Every structure is written in C-alpha cells, then in structure tokens.
Amino acid sequence: MSAPQTRIANLTDLLHAAARGRKTLLPNHPKILVGMASCGLAAGADEVYQAIREETSRLQLPYVVAPTGCIGWCSQEPLVDVRLPHKPRVTYGRMDVPKARELVRGLCDGDLKTQWAIGLLTGHDNPVTRTRIRYSQPSARVDGVPRYEDLELFRRQIRLVTRNCGVIDPADLDEYIARAGYLALHWALTGMRPEEIINEVTRSGLRGRGGAGFPTGKKWEVMRRQPAKPKYIVCNADEGDPGAYMDRAVLEGDPHSVLEGMTIGAYAMGASDGVIYVREEYPLAVKRMLEAIAQAEAAGLLGDNLFHSGFSFHIRVVKGAGAFVCGEETALITSVEGRVGEPRQRPPYPAQRGLGGKPTCINNVETWANIPVILMRGGDWYAHLGTGDSRGTKVFCLVGAVKNPTLIEVPMGITLRQIVYDIGGGIPQGRKFKAIQTGGPSGGCLPESLLDLEVDYESLTQAGAIMGSGGMIVMDSSTCMVDLARYFLTFLADESCGKCFSCRKGLQRMRQIVTRITEGLGSEGDLELIEDLGWMVRETSLCGLGQTAPNPVLSTLRYFRDEYLAHVREKRCPAKVCKELITYRIEPTLCDGCGACVRVCTSQAILGEKKKVHTIDNAKCIKCGSCLEVCQPQAVLVE
Amino acid sequence: MSESVDIDAILGTRWERAENLIPVLQDIQSQFHYLPEGALRAVSRCFQIPFPRVFHVATFYNCFSLEPRGRHHVQVCLGTACHVRGGQRVLDKVLRELSLPASGTTSDFEFTVEPVRCLGCCALAPVMRVDQRTYGHLQQSRVPRVLKGCRQPIMATA
User: Does B15 lie at the interface with A, CB-CB under 8 angstroms?
Assistant: First the structure.
C-alpha cells in the first residue's frame, strides 16, 4: 500500500516513522475512515468504502480515504468517520451507499450532515505514553452531536488492548508507530533486562485473558528458568467461544500490538520462534497478521538482531482447522505439530515441555496486546486498575438481547448491571432481562439476582460461570434456558475430542436427556441424573473442555430450575421456544387478512381469503416461525 | 473424472514434515473443495505418515470434507448469539429452500450447507456466510433472495 518499508534500527528511525504516521493519521486534507473489520464488512462497509472512493475521485476531491478497525460500536455498523483538518472527528452510523455518496457531496459543500452523526471525538488517548492525538481543540463541538465521552457506551471504557482499533489503518505500520508502537519493544531491548520485564508483568497482576486466568508473570518466570533450547512463544488466537470476537477485533484492527507483545515476551523468556494460531473462520484476521508480519520483517522489527541488540525472533502464522478443543493449550500444541488436537496430561506444562518437547509459552491475543502498555506505563500503574486479584481491563463482547451490542473494554470489577444497562442500554422491545451467559460453552448463565455481581475471575467462578475469553450474551424472556442447555451440550458433545470416555459419553448422554426434556418427554429424576452426570464429567475429564463442559447445564439448573420443572411436569415451555411444546395460532381480533403470512408459509398451513381472518392448520404447521416474522399487526401468537 | 493431485506443487517450498500436514491438507481442501482419497494417499506417501493417521487428521477437523462440496459454501452461524436470535430457524429455512433434509450438498452441487460455530459477527446475529460474503441481521424471509443472488454467475467473483 505504502512506499517500500524503510528499515528501523534505532530510536531515531522509530521517531521518523512516527512522524510519517502522524502525517497520515492527521493529514492536512479532510480524511474519511471506514470501519472495515469483519463485522463492518458483513454490514456492507466494503460497498460504502468503494462508494466514497468513487465519489471523491469523481469530484476530484483531495480527501484521504482509509480503512480502519473496529471501534466497538457494533450496533451502528457500517461506521464512517470524517475529520476535517483541525476539526473534531465525527462518526456516522448505519451508513449505506446512497448516504455515503451524499455525505461526500455534502462535505464538498461544507455540509457535515450532522443528522446522521452519532458521536464526535476531539482526540484519542494513547495509554502507552499518556499522550493524546488531537483532532481538534478539546473544547471544539459540533451542534447536535454528542461527544464520545458523554455517551454511556464509551464513558466507562478504558481502552488499553483496543487502544488503536478504529483509530489507525491496521495495514499501516507507520500509523501504529505514531501511536507509540514498538517503543516498548525498543525500550525493552535496549534498556531492560529480561528479569526486569518479567518483574513488571508480575507486578501488573496480569492474568491470562484466554479464560483460565493463570498469572502471566508466573508463567513467564517458569518458562524463563527452563534450560532447554530453543524455546517457543505461541499466541492463541483460536477464539472458539461462540459469542466472543474480541481477539478477532484486535487481530484485524491492531495486528502489530500482538506482534510487539510477543516479541517482548520472547526476549524476556529467551525464545527464538513464535507461532500465531488463528482460526480459519477468521480469514481477514489471518490476512492482517500475515501482512503485519511481512511489514515488521521488512522494517527490521521482526527477524534478526532487532535494534542491534543481538536478539532475534521470528513469527509464523498457523491456521487452525476448525476444532474448538484446540483452544486448550496442549491440544493446540499437538495441532501445530500436525496431529489431531487431543489434550494431554499436565504437568508437564507447556512452559516446561511444549512444542516439539521444548518450553513453550502460550498466551492469548488480549494478553499479548496488554504487554506493551504494561511495560511503558509500569506494572504498578496497570495494577491500579481493576479489583482484588483481577487487575487491569478486560475486553467484552456484549451481544444478544441488548439495545447496543458492542465490543467494550472496561476495568475489572465493573458490575454486570452496569455492563448490561448502562453500556448495553438494557433490553430491547420492552422485554425483561432473564440471564447473562459468560465464558462461552465453558461458562454459565447468571440470573437477574446476580446482576450486581462484580466482574472478576473469582466472583464469576463462585457464581458458577467463568470469565472465559469475554463473551457476554444477554438473554431476555424469549430464550428458553432448557433449550440453551441443549444447545451448549450439542456444541460440546460435537467438539469433545473423544479422548476421555467421561467427556465423550457423558456429554452425549446429557444431551439425550436434555433433548428429551425439551421434547416434553422428560420424567421425574432426570434433573438429578443430569446433575450426577455433570459432576462426573467435571471430575473425571482430563482437560478444561470436559472439566467445564457441565457448567452451562449446572448453572441453568441452579438458577432456572423452575423452567426445567415446567418442561418435565407441565410439559410446557415458558419461553415458548421448544417446538414440541408450542403451537402457533392467529388471533382473529388482530388479523387484518393481509396475506403476508400465507406468502411466506412454505408448508401451506395458513388458510383464509384475502381481507378475511386467517387460521393456521396445526397438522401442517412445521413451526418455522416465518409467519411470526412477517406479521405486521402481530396477530400470530405462540402458545 | 479422476482427481490427479500434484502434491509437489501444493507442497511448494515447504518440507514434508508433520507440522506441514494440516496446512497442505488445507490447501488441497481449498483447491478441490474436498479431500479426494487419492490426495490423502499421495500425502501419506509423500510425508511418510501412515495413511490411517492422515485419515484421522482429515476426519478430526471440521474444515476438511471427504465428500465433494458444492460450488457455493453456505455457512449458517450457530454461535450462542445467533442461536439466541434464531440462527437455527435460519438454518432450517436454508435447508427447506434447497430441499435438503439435513446439512450437506445439493444434488446439483450448487450449494453445500453447513452450520458453523461462530463467525465472530455476533452483534449482527443471526449471521450467515455464503462463500466470502457475510450477511447479518438475517430474517427467514431474506434467505431466498440471498440464495438466488448466489445462483447468478456474476456473484461468483465476489
């Protein structure tokens, strides 16, 4: 994209690169940024981007048009940002091609189109150096457009890991350096001893962000003490938890932060090679990482003799092949070695014997991206954020039944209520909050009574859920907890590698029983049987997958037992989800006979003439819910 | 139609080491849209890895298919967020539209439908990916249009 990469071998080179980056970050021309991470693209960002490019070149405007990563405002995708020189950066939400074209034409005439604007930024803090890039005077305002700082969504956020997501062009190394990128690496290689680095990480209280929460400093210490060579560094980007995409956002929006963190870790632990294990379901993340590695190698920020320190480090990308269990570290290692991803007994831990039998340090994407910040700001500063034994910030994906599904980064210790109601905006369509599911298939469902729970590793575990990688799925009254338990059991039974009998068979058996309950065929005693089985699977499985697999079922049983009982005793699904226990009906007083339902019904189950009340033939109805979706007067009822 | 597989070309500059087994299988998969038996046997010989072990790997990971896949790959997301927002209904609708009894390939080899565990676009749930394009906020009523759009050859280049 840019000119051939210049080599960066010392601080002066870094500063030159930073100056170049600042020029493209804050050009003297109007700049238009389009959020082009996977979620933006899915919402149509590519078409918007092309339209803006076409329109600017057609009108021969000297505008800079660039892609950027995900700023986390997922509900408003596709997002477009406009910054005029020395003016605040204005964000536009839910853009489409006609709006994008009109926006460009408007800008050309000096019209900011504030009716589509959803937020404005006067600058972006840089947590690495405590500096700030300034788009405009801090007091600058645009009429009718709220500041990000005043929005509930952003007010509580502290963006360390996601510091550059949505700020820089992820394909531009200079822009990353302009945000103090690779400064921490330079500082580490030229001014710090490995023990000092590990000491800072230990002091920061950082714990593995992949789910288990093992203290990072401790892991590094163990790894450093291993005499065997070579040593390996692995970045676990096999983000398999459904409902979690924070790693994808970082890989796509700020790939160099991961590379920098890994390189610092490698220096601290004496490793020579690194592997990034990325899910193949994330093609853009794979592409971005490969691009970033090539750039860093060309610039001399990755490879041999970095900053003339004599330290060399190489990174390669390994694409996962679609197995959830490979998120478990020992399974990940066997997968990288070219075998089936089956976990093995620990100890020895990978830090003692990992890839090829050599010491291997595996950390998650988010953990690595934290490292440059910790190093530059010091472990003590990092530790002042958070609570108890959970320090720093955590990125969460807040999705499901909330008004504003978002990607957020907040200090540990925030309550679930603040996340769901303040940041997420509460439950849409006037429905009632029912549960929040954290930690993916290894986590649990927490009920309303636990909404004031502080989010940290210990309290979540105590409540029967886990922190996990950070997915939070909010559920309202339209979600059936038994059906959800069945969903997770199906997922886990499919993804169990099959090595341990208890996990393989136990989960299949639990799935059978819960499926039977959802079909209205459950009997008294089933619930106790599931609990027994769950306990057995937890206690007798080798790896984290099996040990946590019963969590979704056990936690729903613990907090939503009455819903199970309604299925078993009354053969009733209170949330009206389980197909075998519901029927569809058209309320005659509401039906206006428009015929929309007749057109979508593929099983010809809806009878009635146009302009007359329709009825559903239950013998033919397959309960697909198509009619419910299209019925404007909401006359289709589920009972 | 016999599938001749040029393992050397796929291997490229890589070594015939076990660590390259999965990447090579991935390349074969993306070239042929499935793993032909001949290719697996060739890989086994080339890597000097016993055939059963190659087969074990090929059947363990979700991204490999031992049966030919259709021209368009439809992945309906059944991640938690999509499940909560009706992903299963979308999947059922796709299957009904294509007259498939269950996940698999249509008889004309136009489409292969598979559920997938999270595409990472949870805020847009429910989500479905057809080839390279991802569709968010899907309603059942939109499914026929999306599939119809794919049948037109122009879209194949997207």
Answer: no
